[in-house]
Amino acid sequence: MRFIDALASLQRAGRLHRSLRRATHGIVWLVLPLALPAMASCPAASTTDLAHIKGIGEQSALAEGQRVTIDGVVTGEFLGRERLSGFYLQQTTEQGPVGIFVYAPELAEHKAAQVVAGQHLQLQARTGSFRGNPQLQRVTQLVTCDSAGELPEPIALSWPQDAASLDAMEALLVTFPEPLTVTDNHDLGRYGTLALASERRFRPTHSAAQAAPSPAPLLLDDGSYRTNPDPVPYLNEQGTRRVGSTLDGLTGVLTHAFGDYRLHPTQAVTFTDSNPRPGPLEAPGDALRVATFNVENYFVTLGERGAANAPALERQRGKLAAAIAGLEADILALIEIENRPDALTDLVEQLHQRTGIRYQPVGEPERHGTDAIRVALLYRPDRVEALGALHIDRDDAHDRPPLAGFFRSVRGGPEVGVVTAHFKAKSGCPAQGDIDRGQGCWNERRVAQAQATQRFLDTLREEAGHERLLLLGDLNAYGAEDPIRTLVHAGMTDLIARHLPAERRYTYVFRGESGYLDHALASAELAEAVQQVHTWPINADEPRFLSYDQQPDDTPPSPFRSSDHDPIAVDLVWP
């Protein structure tokens, strides 16, 4: 024991290799750090059990810094500086199975051969904690108790579980026999985590007001708490892991860290691409296709809200061009373009260069409103004729005014009025006043904008002499929230709710909840001419690290994660 303690002391002081080389003339590489030869049984009785260390049962938890001798079965090995720098032990006690994490960075360079899943070990260490979770640390002895070693049977769980049940299983080996669904991948590139649930989680107000909140997800972690893992884990052969992917038989160690319940897998994770990447939309044929797309801050002023530099802007242009080409829209309602004339001019020219499609803006590409971003209407002159001037809603409720134009197919037929709008976002919340009351902050402002937009629609009806109107854009309100209800109550038809099944009614994923902030609403006269409504899921289901601003310069352009919103296309029957 004195020799082992001396080794540990030398290692902690950073002198282990140097001292052993002097003492053994370089034979250090034949010595396993902190290890004794395998033994048929544990060499000594344990001084306590894991239940006592963690305070489970009638006894209180041991204070931190206590020296203990403890044994248990390894359920998960995560040694190494790129991982958790330790392993999990599990033990059967009078209170049932108990698990604990053993923090052992001293084993990072020379992984101890005994630390393998299923091995029964005894160790001497001190009690400690990490972010409120008990753990063992400062290991000075590590021995094999027997050679047979068997993993305990993982505890079968369903999801969701209540917090009390999960706390009782913290640090235990568990398995999920039923399929789980990826419901969020925002932090996959940043932290190597995926949020899982029994099914895709939807925003409570996306389809039914006052719906119950969806249960919190389980985080599938990657056996580490590092940032920016390289390579990014859990990707398929296309280099993505989409929301909606499913996995069966997930097995690992359950823990709670950084505010979430997490599972570090101990077996290979097998995914099914239940929500594969879609191909381009089918061509509209004889229909007139009108689409809306939030292009996520297309700025030619570098270093502002859009691209940070010229290479990033090139990647953004390539992705947007691929997405817009795949839409095959005759009329485009675009959201989040920098509010300066040359930004819209640049985007139109870039689309032409990269797709061969010549779009024409309705009206001059001038500044509209007071916000840093604006909306725009584009059309294809080879398929559509623009009638009259651009109409602007100058109501004081808007800082980025809605725009409207009237169009007719070059083949003739009736006119259609297309209105595009971008209501105030749910971010930048005030401390008082228009605060979040269940529909995000600034809901009163969005309701006022909806009312103003409805008045604008009424004015367009009078000026155009008919009621064939289509309202498109990012209204920053989910389908059952007050701004949308205001427009529907005034006679507009929610085309997504009318034409798409519930599981496809989303264009955006926020904190693991899907829903549609982007909308297509038609007047009663136009609603009957709607042939088909498409949401094209090329963005919201894709992980954030695939965005243009996080990819290498030589990344081939693709439509996937060209924005954080999915585009919507509406096909109208055209005589």
Ordered list of secondary-structure elements with their pairings:
Blueprint: H1 2-12, H2 16-24, H3 50-54, E1 67-78, E2 86-93, E3 96-103, E4 120-130, E5 133-144, E6 155-156, H4 163-168, E7 173-176, E8 180-184, H5 188-191, E9 194-197, E10 218-220, E11 246-247, E12 250-257, E13 260-265, E14 271-272, E15 288-298, H6 310-327, E16 331-338, H7 341-355, E17 360-361, E18 373-379, E19 384-392, E20 403-409, E21 416-422, H8 443-464, E22 469-474, H9 482-489, E23 493-494, H10 495-499, E24 508-510, E25 513-515, E26 518-522, H11 524-527, E27 530-535, E28 568-572
Parallel strand pairs: 3-5, 6-7, 10-13, 15-16, 21-22
Antiparallel strand pairs: 1-2, 1-4, 2-3, 4-5, 7-12, 8-9, 8-11, 9-10, 11-14, 12-13, 15-28, 16-18, 17-18, 19-20, 20-21, 22-26, 23-26, 24-25, 27-28
Helix pairs in contact: 6-7, 8-9
Brief rundown of the structure:
This protein is an alpha+beta fold and 575 residues long. The protein has eleven helices and 28 strands.
Structural features, described:
This protein is of the alpha+beta class. It has helices spanning 2-12, 16-24, 50-54, 163-168, 188-191, 310-327, 341-355, 443-464, 482-489, 495-499, 524-527, and strands at residues 67-78, 86-93, 96-103, 120-130, 133-144, 155-156, 173-176, 180-184, 194-197, 218-220, 246-247, 250-257, 260-265, 271-272, 288-298, 331-338, 360-361, 373-379, 384-392, 403-409, 416-422, 469-474, 493-494, 508-510, 513-515, 518-522, 530-535, 568-572. The strands form five sheets. A nine-stranded mixed sheet has the order 6-7-12-13-10-9-8-11-14, with no helix packed on it. Strands 17-18-16-15-28-27 form a six-stranded mixed sheet. Helix 6 crosses helix 7 (341-355) and helix 8 runs parallel beside helix 9 (482-489). It is elongated and about 95 Å long.
